[in-house]
Amino acid sequence: MLVDMSAQTLPPKAPTPGLRERKKQQTRQNISNVATALFLERGFDNVTIAEIAAVADVAKMTVTNYFPRKEDLVLDLQDEFVVGLGRTVRERRPGESALAALRRAYLADATAQNPVIGFSGPEFGRLITGSPALLTRLREFHDERERALAETLAAETGVTAADDDITPVTAAALLAGVHRVLFEETLRRTVSGEPNDTIAPAIIEYLTTAFDLLEPSLGYYAVRAA
């Protein structure tokens, strides 16, 4: 069914960050860039926070204020990673299910070779897979993302804690599980040395298979009213 979008209200544009906020973002990005370069050169376990602060020309406390955990210096896209699925569901189109919105978003990300879904480059991929601490932190982010998605699905379908309904949690486990499988496959291929232009078509084929498997159970779940 075609939906007339002309009458839909467009979301307001995000306000432009002020000078102070832009400086904070620049400082954060500089610290992350310095840390990543040092980690790639010497290995994650062989670089200290003090060394990162010295090279970035900031106080050690500044580093920990922006990145409370050392692992977050590497996985600095964690905020987008954790909230992305829930945001996609909240912003789904009229007549679109949660499953369809997530499929559409993942296809766009795979086509664009978005680093958030695993297109990190072989050196960075090996940095992650070579560190048990980073792999543990990455698993935590996957778990946090699943919980955030479950909360969004509950809110979008009107389910509260008093309802004792496990549907949002179950749906989130299935949807986030597919994303985890695709992420890990992308990372595996990246570490093995495959170029992104080879990985992307394969992942697009895999996502078609994976989302098709969920279609019978979730194709009509959390559909936004037209």
UniProtKB/TrEMBL annotation:
KW Endoplasmic reticulum (keyword) present: no
InterPro entries cross-referenced by the UniProt entry: Homeodomain-like_sf (IPR009057), HTH-type_TetR-like_transc_reg (IPR050109), HTH_TetR (IPR001647)
Annotated region of DNA binding: 48-67
Region ranges (Disordered): 1-27
Keywords: DNA-binding, Transcription, Transcription regulation
Domain HTH tetR-type: residue ranges: 25-85
Name of the protein: TetR family transcriptional regulator
PANTHER family hit by this protein: HTH-TYPE TRANSCRIPTIONAL REGULATOR BETI, HTH-TYPE TRANSCRIPTIONAL REGULATOR RUTR
UniProt superkingdom: Bacteria
Organism (species): Nocardia uniformis
GO function term, MF aspect, one: DNA-binding transcription factor activity
